[in-house]
Amino acid sequence: MQVQVVYCSHQTAGLNVRERLAFSSPEQIQHAYDDFRGRFPASEIVVVSTCNRVEIYTAQEAAEDPPTQVQIVQFFSDFHQIPLEDFVDDLLARTGPDAVRHLFEVVSSLDSMVLGEPQIVSQVKSAYDLSRENGASGPLTNALFQGALHVSARVRSETRLAEGKVSIASVAVGDFGKSIFDRFDDKTVLIIGAGEMAEETLRYLQEEGTGEVFVVNRSPERAERLAKDCNAVVKPFDELDRWMREADIIVSTTGAERPIVDAARFRAVREGHANKPVFILDLGAPRDFDPAVADVDDNVFLYDIDHLEQTCERNRSARSKEVQAARVIIDEESRKFMQAIYHQATGPVIKRLREEWTEIREEEMQRLVAKLPDLEENAREEVERSLERIINKLLHPPLKALRDESAAGTPHGLVDALRRLFHLKD
Amino acid sequence: MSNISIFCFFASYLVAFALELSRLLKRTTISRTVMLLFGTAGLVAHTFYLFEQSAKQNLPPLLSSTHDWMLVLAWVVILFYLFMTTFDRDLAVGLFLLPLVLLFVGAAYFVNDSPNAMIATRESAIQKWAMLHATLLMFGIAGVVWGIVCSLMYLVQHRRLKQQQTLQQGLTLPSLPRLARWNRWSVMVSIPLLTLGMLTGVGLGLYAKGGAATMSFTDPVIMVNGSVWLVMVGFFIWLWRTDRPAGKQVAWLTMWAFGFLLVTLIGLQVLTGGHAAMSVSQPDGSQLVIGVPTIEEC
């Protein structure tokens, strides 16, 4: 089998290159498949295109005329109408076992920007489904991508690579918010400031389903923009205390130079509401809430960006420790996959050998029955079984030799020798 | 089966608890499976032991002796633990429940397992009332155990959240509102059960006064437990009448009140060897002290 991948990823190419080489829509990918198959009709192809990588996998059974890496690079250039010199240095290529291992690493999220992130599995699966729908895949890519999904499942279940959240917003909501509240759909959210972090955190909260969302910002224009994107309501900045009292969740990212809420101010806000839990995410740097606010009462849960970042870092470091364990699984599965593929190539010879010897067995059996017409049914069956056993025993050593040789690659020499020794025809 | 001793299931529960602790360091499917197997093995041995005891004394385990009554309580708690752990693979409830199970089983070892003479010899109506009394108390105490566990989990979770600590491996706990809800329910259910159990116990005591067995209501054991019960009722009324009480406050109060009740219960049983304040007149005029699982012991 000839398998190879030509690719660029966030580790090899900048976003300016990746976005020019990307296949961004299903229609564009369909055109790419049509074009590629026109150039290389014998080759199976799968295009994986995400915001962090663009990869073209090709595979074909016949050793003759596979697309070369230069031809694939040229295809990128022709299809996207980009001069080769603009991107050729950013592309990498792998062939054979290295290409298989690369796919297994990609789908196991070892090559992702966020180690262990889960989206890559569905992205690779969708890419393969799209290839199949466009008639660009075949038995080899099917085996390759099914194998990849199997490896990903093993890595995720046998290591802790995907455990622990690694983004500030996900840690805030997942590790803390969900322990403070049972549900979010009846909770009022107050956003103070209109920074990117507020937007990202709000997106996580809205995935859980939030109640009303209010935005308070010194600049009403920015507040309006965020409110429009997030289906929120803008409130005047001078009503901040009132909305802090109403809120169950406060996300603050003002970028103010000094804390805008100190303990005394927040104590006044909490008067008469001390039994209601409030979850405060202070994502401002410098902080928007004085740390003493956390001690106002038992139901104030204040988290600043440093606390959240420390948790993210701990989780990232825990994931990094699992990389080695994941690589062991990937190496083992890559080896098994290649052995199975190499062994598959010996299939026609084995089948032919078995057929020839079975023919001989049947001829000899007929001759024996003709010579011994009085042979009883039981005896005849016993002789047949003996002949079958002899054939199996004789076949065992060459088949074992083929299997052993397959560990290192397709055993072309051994296959040729068998063909010549036993006069096997294709 | 007759070779099954308390040590068999105590050891099984101890191993299950050790495995629960090990999950704080590393969580694997194998350790969880082994933990559940040990828990289940312990439960099976525990069940056989109770059957054996019951058959030997010709009384249901709840009535036969204080020793058996405590073991039935431990049996209910372990069944609940296995149910929770089977259906929620992440919940670390075993870390809190199993030490209490071990405490009950351990304490049962030190209390009297002699058959309850009064119940064994009295008519079936008394036995039925005694059964009701023991059952109400047993479920009431099970509610107390669950209240303590919920309060502990609440306080651990609250502390983690206040100190901005990330989720620790193997120590996954429910959210604060859920724990507060469970806690409140445990109080609202267990205290009425204990009260009913106590009332049936007093009724039984008064009835027994007329017979061969006598009971002193001024016994220190009865007086201590009566006082604890009054504290419980006060707590119940406060919780019932307070609108949206602070979760942490409820958790601490539950811990103190239920913890005190449990310590008193276990402590008095162990110190008195499980003897109730009841005696039976002997033909020679002497008094024979017998064990009986009534609220006066709780």
3D architecture notes:
The complex is a heterodimer of chains A (426) and B (298). Chain A is 55% helix and 12% strand. Chain A is built from 16 helices and ten strands. Chain A has helices at 15-21, 26-39, 69-80, 96-107, 119-133, 139-158, 168-180, 196-208, 220-230, 240-246, 263-270, 305-320, 323-345, 347-371, 377-406, 412-421; strands at residues 2-9, 44-50, 53-60, 92-95, 189-192, 213-216, 233-235, 249-252, 278-282, 300-304. In chain A, the strands form two sheets. In chain A, strands 7-6-5-8-9-10 form a six-stranded parallel beta sheet, with helices on both faces. The longest helix of chain A is centred in the last third of the chain and has 30 residues, at 377-406. The mean pLDDT of chain A is 87. In chain B, strand 2 and strand 3 (287-289) form a beta hairpin. In chain B, helix 1 packs antiparallel against helix 5 (94-110) and helix 4 (66-87) packs across helix 7. The two termini of chain B are 31 Å apart. The chains are: A alpha/beta (426), B mainly alpha (298). Chain A binds chain B through residues 164, 171, 175-176, 178-182, 274-277, 294, 298-299, 301, 303, 307, 311, 314-315, and chain B through 157-158, 160-162, 164, 166-167, 173, 175-178, 244-249.
Which SSEs are present, and which pair or pack?
The complex is a heterodimer of chains A (426) and B (298).
Chain A: E1 2-9, H1 15-21, H2 26-39, E2 44-50, E3 53-60, H3 69-80, E4 92-95, H4 96-107, H5 119-133, H6 139-158, H7 168-180, E5 189-192, H8 196-208, E6 213-216, H9 220-230, E7 233-235, H10 240-246, E8 249-252, H11 263-270, E9 278-282, E10 300-304, H12 305-320, H13 323-345, H14 347-371, H15 377-406, H16 412-421
Parallel strand pairs in A: 5-6, 5-8, 6-7, 8-9, 9-10
Antiparallel strand pairs in A: 1-3, 1-4, 2-3
Helix pairs in contact in A: 4-6, 4-13, 5-6, 6-13, 7-8, 7-12, 10-11, 14-15
Chain B: H1 6-22, H2 29-57, H3 61-64, H4 66-87, H5 94-110, H6 117-121, H7 124-162, H8 176-209, E1 213-215, H9 220-241, H10 247-272, E2 278-281, E3 287-289
Antiparallel strand pairs in B: 1-2, 2-3
